[in-house]
Amino acid sequence: MFVITVDQRGSRTRPDGVPALLTQVKRVVPTPHLAFSRTVGDEIQGVVSHAHEAIALARHILRARDWYIGIGVAPIEGALPKRSAEANGPAFVYAREAVEDAKISRGTAPVAVRASNSEVAAHAQGLLQLLGRIYEGRSPAAWEAIDQLVAPTGFPTGFNQRDVALTLRVSPPAVSKRLRAAYFDEEQAVLPLLRALLEQLDESVTG
């Protein structure tokens, strides 16, 4: 299980972004293990069962650049309550520690991973931070093309670059240029490794 805690950056000077984020999260992970909800202030928390769901959420939230993300991987004690704020166990503690780590990380993307296997967690965190830095440099035009290729859930849409070009009414070379500038192929090459690392963390606590 993956507990994910997300806290708004600069919440004292920005409007409350939680309602909009909760709506977006439902599109990214339609069936979480425990639904995401506000915990305190401008923070949300929820639980997902699979590594690909954790990645899809991190990918979407890092793209917005308005949130700190903490991912905790550990056993969950007892039956889950209806709201994440009422839950407890090591995974929730790790998620809390991770989001606090994300807040103090300077010069990196605001995401952190905590688990009992600190070495593997650090490797997964490093890859997520690398992706976050890539996303920081992506243009709206690049995201427009990528969103035609990758669904909010993180799975391929089935479109190819020619389909994207037809949909966006641009030339195939223009789509290729957008994807190349966005390091899209490099991102796709890294995602399986990130998923394997997160699955390794999950298996180490459930196996």
Low-confidence stretches: none
Q: Please give the order of strands in the largest beta sheet.
A: 2-3-1-4-5
- Helical segment count: 8
Largest sheet entry: 5 strands, mixed
Helix content: 40-55%
> How many extended strands?
5
Cα-based radius of gyration, to the nearest Å: 17 Å
Q: What integer is the average pLDDT?
A: 92
Order of helices and strands: EHEEHEHEHHHHH
Estimated share of beta-strand residues: 5-15%
What would you call the shape?
globular
Calculate the terminal CA-CA distance, rounded to whole Å: 12 Å
Which key terms come to mind for this protein?
207 residues; alpha+beta; single chain
Descriptive overview:
The chain is an alpha+beta fold and 207 residues long. The protein is 53% helix and 14% strand. Helix 3 links the parallel strand 4 (67-73) and strand 5. The longest helix has 23 residues, at 184-206. The termini are close together.
